[in-house]
Every structure is written in C-alpha cells, then in structure tokens.
Automatic annotation (TrEMBL):
Location in or out of the cell: Cell membrane
Cross-referenced InterPro entries: MetI-like (IPR000515), MetI-like_sf (IPR035906)
Chain ranges of the ABC transmembrane type-1 domain: 68-259
Keywords: Cell membrane, Membrane, Transmembrane, Transmembrane helix, Transport
Organism annotation: Paenibacillus radicis
Membrane topology value: Multi-pass membrane protein
Annotated protein name in UniProt: Carbohydrate ABC transporter permease
Residues spanning the membrane: 12-31, 72-91, 103-124, 136-159, 180-202, 238-259
Gene3D superfamilies, A to Z: MetI-like
C-alpha cells in the first residue's frame, strides 16, 4: 500500500504543476480586472488587490450587454441547428443500409479538410448578394456549415457502436424509423451530443474572422469584435479589458461544466445498461 502511494506521488506533482500552468492565467485575468489602470502599471503582477468593480461597470457602459446578447443569439441558434442537422444526417449514415452511404459519409468528412479562411471572399460576396451583409443572420450560415462535418463524424461513429438489436426489437413492436430516432437513438447518444455542444459552443462563441468580415455595425457586433473597443489608439485599458474577458469567459465555463456532468452521467448510465 505504501509502495503504491509512493508511486503516485510523481503523478500528483505533475497534476499540481499542470494546475498551476493552466489556472494561473485565468486567476491573473480575474485579479487584474479588479485593479485600476494606475495600480496595474505600478505593479502589473501583484495578486493581492482591493476588490473594486469600476472596470465591470465600464465594460457594460461600453456595450458589453449588447455584445453578449448578439453572441448568445448567434451561438444558441447555430448550436441548436448543428445538433439537429448532424443528428438527422448521422442516423441514416450509420443505421440504415443504402447505396452511396459510404460515399456521402466521406463527402461530409472531407469538409473537415477544407481551410475555412479560404472561403472568406466567396462567403462575403454571397452574403452581399443575399442581402444579409452586416446582420447576425450572415453568421449563421458559415458557422453551421463549417461545424457540421466534425459533428456528423462524431455522431456517426458513436451511433455505429450502438447495438442493432434495440432497433430490431423496436421495429417488431411497430416503431417507424422516425420514432426510433427520436425516442430511442437520441437518448442513447447524449454523451456524443454533449461533446458536439461543448465543442461548437466554444468555437462559435470565440469566433472572430467571419464576424470581422461580415459585421460592421456596432449594434450587431459579437463579443470578440466588441473587445476591440477596449483598445485605444495609443494605449490599452488592460484592467477593463480583463474585466470584459472575465465576463465573456463565464458562459463558456458554465456550459463546459454543465455539459461535462451530462457526459459522465451518460457514460455511466450506458455502462450500467
């Protein structure tokens, strides 16, 4: 017992070092957000600061609420449609035998190899021609389209591992493919759904390039674009920027921890069954 404990000490030390390296930047960001500009320049690396919320007030005065609403609107709709379309596409690709199923799957997966930034100019022109330029709707198409390949790949692989006896038993009971999909398959792939929700939420919430190209009006800016307002022509209000970044990172952390719990429950539930 003592020998086993001794062997685990290096693992605990390594875990502690990883915690310091990964946790310190976030801790520094949060503590810096409570400093004034003068305090930051006097001692930028001090971790002991008086708590004051003037930077958070300033962040909201510069339109942080509007950026939050825009980002949440785009992210929520995009993730919802990504999950729906990916699940609907993955079910026939993995559970129904038909010609060209492997070819269609490879076509979907090949989208993962497409460098998305090479499509900026065509998407910019297409958005202008459709009359969607400088609107939040302009972001939905690229976000959904470029997130579907990886989502379909994950869900198809996960559905392929499910036992077919469950569907055969449901078909004997008179269930249609639609009912099998909604009532049987979807509840069983909760871990995979949680994975693509986390992945796509983080990616879309922090996406910058497409928002920069397709959005120009301040009232339509998402959070990554809105962060530019904390940069002056010659200076940067670092504490105010840190306050805005702290607020912007909270939804990501909440979604991650919430969905992480769902993944664990789904895995343990499937193991017991």
């Amino acid at each position: 017992m003592a020998l086993r404990t001794f062997k685990t000490i290096p693992l605990y030390i390594l875990s502690l070092l990883l915690l310091v390296f990964t946790g310190y930047p976030f801790l520094y960001m949060v503590l810096t957000s409570f400093k004034t500009q003068e305090m930051f320049f006097m001692d930028p690396f001090s971790l002991f600061v008086p708590v004051q919320f003037s930077n958070y007030v300033m962040a909201f005065e510069k339109g942080l609420t509007s950026y939050f609403v825009n980002s949440f609107y785009v992210t929520a709709i995009s993730v919802l449609l990504i999950v729906l379309f990916a699940a609907l596409a993955s079910y026939p690709l993995s559970r129904i035998r038909f010609r060209m199923s492997k070819v269609l799957f490879m076509l979907f997966v090949s989208g993962m190899m497409l460098p998305i930034h090479s499509t900026l100019i065509p998407i910019f022109k297409l958005t202008q021609d459709m009359g969607l330029y400088d609107s939040l709707m302009a972001l939905l198409g690229p976000y959904i389209a470029f997130s579907l390949p990886i989502s379909i790949f994950i869900l198809t692989q996960f559905m392929s591992e499910l036992p077919r006896e469950i569907e055969e038993a449901a078909e004997i009971d008179g269930c249609t493919h639609a009912r099998i999909f909604w009532n049987i398959i979807l509840p069983m792939i909760t871990p995979a759904l949680s994975t693509i929700v986390i992945y796509n939420f983080i990616h879309i919430w922090t996406e910058f390039i497409f928002a920069l190209v397709l959005i120009t009006s301040p009232e339509n800016m998402t959070l990554p674009l809105g962060m530019q307002k904390y940069y002056g022509e010659l200076t940067v209000n670092v504490p105010a920027l840190m306050a805005a970044l702290t607020m912007a990172s909270m939804p990501i952390l909440l979604v991650y921890f919430f969905a992480q719990e769902k993944i664990v429950k789904g895995l343990t539930g499937g193991a017991v069954k």
